[in-house]
Amino acid sequence: MAKKEAKTDLWVYELLKKADIELEPQGSSILEIDNALKTASKSKTKNVGFPEYVGVVKDFILVIENKADTKKHIKLDEKGLISTTIKDTKDFAVNGALFYAKHLAKNTSYKKIIAFGISGDEKKHHITPIYVDETEFYRELTDVESFISFNKENIEEYYIREILKEETDRDKELADILKDASLLHEDLRNYGNLKDIDKPLIVSGILLALREAEYKNFSLDDLTGDDINSDGEKIFKAIESNLKRSKVAPEVKRDKIISQFSIIKDTKILNEVNETLKKTPLKHFTQFLYDKIYKSIKYSSSSEDYLGRFYGEFMSYSGGDGQTLGIVLTPKHITDLFCELVDIQVDDIVLDPCAGTAGFLIASMHHMLQQTDDKNRQKNIKQKQLHGLELQPYMFTIATTNMILRGDGKSNLINEDFLKQDPYKLQLKEANIGMMNPPYSQGSKSNPNLYEISFIEHLLNSITKGGKVIVIVPQSTMTGKTKEEQSIKDNILKYHTLEGVITLNKDTFYGVGVMPCIAIFTTGEPHPKDKMCRFIDFRDDGYKVAPHIGLIETERAKDKKAHLLDVWFDKIESETKFCVKTTVEENDEWLHSFYYFNDEIPSQEEFEKTIGDYLTFEFSMIMQDREYLFEDSQDES
Question: Cβ distance 68 to 119 under 8 Å?
């Protein structure tokens, strides 16, 4: 075996190991597969033939054929199909992988085979999966960066989504949640005559009241439409009880939250029996939320921000998205990615100074709780390691409610303006992780304190030395459009270290019109001049926009994220079109597009094609009497 081929084999072995997949090299201990390989010679002599790796995951055979040279990845015939000639089967990775897959389909009882043609190395490569069924019919699939989608946990979901092109149970659940949100929005409008700002308060208040049903202090049967002791009074009383039970303190904070829920008992239309419903709108909403939402939140261990999703849906259905208040709610896959990019640990203390609906805090809590079974440590995480600020009173109420519903017994959220807080006092919380999605497009030359970069600087100063700050902001924040923003960028580098910036999918905040990026910093350590920062182009993240739903995850998302994290943590090298490592200056545009240059040397075929295209163009222009386009300007003078 050639040295280059061995290097490729070892790299592929590491990829399989990372994905927790065990395949065997050069043969199989599974008798049926081993017997089939005894006649699998690519020369078609019916002698023995061995792919680089083969094995079984659940009821799928996975088979891999490698080539060290990316030029030997795939060969197509004159019809544009994968060539099946003996020479091409021997010489090209995809062609060889397809040959083995078809042979195994024909000579074993396995009905589902996924073959991989792989060429190159960790920095520059192609990994092409092909699905082959028992009839030897094959389908080429989208290239991947890892095998994460093909381990025991993910392969069936991959099969349903990418091969059968059907919805998974998870997809159906998402569609149901969004459908329910739409229905509830309509009912809140039709039966409650409610303003958009009040809808999420009604939802979160009822959800708190429903928690009291566990203690026999509240029941749906209690909501009778009584004129004296109204349904709203009963729900309001249950909310008060649950806030006390959740130990929301101090009392002034609890009173502030309670006051937001007074709309439930004070709004007449909500407490009168509706002729169409034959019950009060409040009872209708409570029944709906119990059946459709409360059960999901109560029994879910996911980091999903259910109330945040509902809030976002209400805003989008009402024709607005909160932009007038600078509110751009963070999707779940981004809150989870934040935790992974800072490698959040069980002892970390997290601060989100623009908490919104508490999505980052919920994700952090979930990731930390997963790392320990110790009940005391889990209690400490919930009560002492999650801190947040939120300026908008109604958002603060929703965030607090959301944290309570997700099992946070104390909820260290305060209703304050982050920018008015002394960062040195905030450091007393000893937070070593800062996460933030600040208000967008609020700053101006007359009010530079509201620039997104100002929020970043304030957060950097509020986290303990050597901590990590991770933010999601518009890309324009990293370019520094004004002198004031450039000055703040300069100041940040004097006291803190920029680790890197990740450019995101333009549809991350679907419907909002923001081109976002993630920036990661180390706090309290001046940026070294020779520091190599990472600038990553992660626009292709495996998420797409689906009609009537919005941004959804495709099966490629797991693979894309795994690749991103491997590159971020220096586990693998990457082409510069994905990641550029470079030093920075404060007046640079801290984005991949600013630093990237195409460092790939064109192949002979690409060079010949470019020359051919140019000569064809020149000939066409000359035939149209436009040869003057190619005359030397000096000859014309």
Answer: yes
**Using an 8 Å Cβ cutoff, are 317 and 182 in contact?**
yes
Structure pTM? 0.82
DSSP conformational letter for 441: S
Q: Each residue of 384-419: pLDDT tens digit?
A: 999 999 998 888 888 888 888 877 756 688 999 999
Which residues on adjacent β-strands are paired with residue 535? 501, 580
* Rounded Cα distance, 470 and 485, in Å: 18
Check if the beta carbon of residue 136 is closer than 8 Å to that of residue 105.
Answer: yes
Q: Is the dihedral of CA 476, 482, 487, 490 positive or negative?
A: positive
Tell me the C-alpha distance between 193 and 199, whole Å: 10
Measure the CA–CA gap between 274 and 193, rounded to whole angstroms.
Answer: 12
* Beta bridge mates, 24: 54
Whole-angstrom distance, CA of residue 156 vs CA of residue 343: 28
Separation in Å, CA 149 to CA 12, 155, 165: 15, 6, 15
Q: Which of 381, 414, 418, 419 is closest to 395 using CA atoms?
A: 414
- 202, 239 contact by CB (below 8 A): no
DSSP reduced 3-state for 173 = helix
Please tell me the distance from the alpha carbon of residue 555 to that of residue 563, in angstroms, as a whole number: 14
Q: What is the DSSP string of 189-250?
A: HHHH---GGGHHHHHHHHHHHHHGGGGTS--GGG----SSS-HHHHHHHHHHHHHHHTT--S
pLDDT of residue 349: 97
Section 592-605 average pLDDT = 77
Nearest in space to 127 (alpha carbons), one of 135, 136, 138, 118: 118
**Tokens 């580098």 — which residue?**
493
R_g of the chain computed on alpha carbons: 29
pLDDT tens for 180-225 read 888 888 899 899 988 877 888 898 899 899 989 888 899 999 999 9
Cα(285)–Cα(189) distance, rounded to whole angstroms?
Answer: 11
Residues near 394 by Cβ (< 8 Å), separated by ≥ 6? 197, 200, 201, 260
What residues have CB less than 8 Å from 176, skipping those under 6 apart?
none
φ, ψ (nearest 5 deg) of residue 320 = -140, 165
Alpha-carbon separation of residue 54 from 24, 44, 57, 63, 156 (angstroms): 5, 19, 10, 4, 18
Q: Could you give the 3-state DSSP secondary structure of residue 389?
A: strand
Please state at what angle helix 452-460 crosses helix 483-495, rounded to 10 degrees. Answer: 20
Both tokens of 79, joined, read 């019809």
In sequence order, the 6+-apart residues with CB closer than 8 A to the CB of 191 are 269, 274, 276, 277, 281, 284, 285
Count how many residues are written for the chain: 637
Give the C-alpha separation, 99 to 288, whole Å. Answer: 55
pLDDT of 49-74, one tens digit each? Answer: 999 999 999 999 999 999 999 999 99
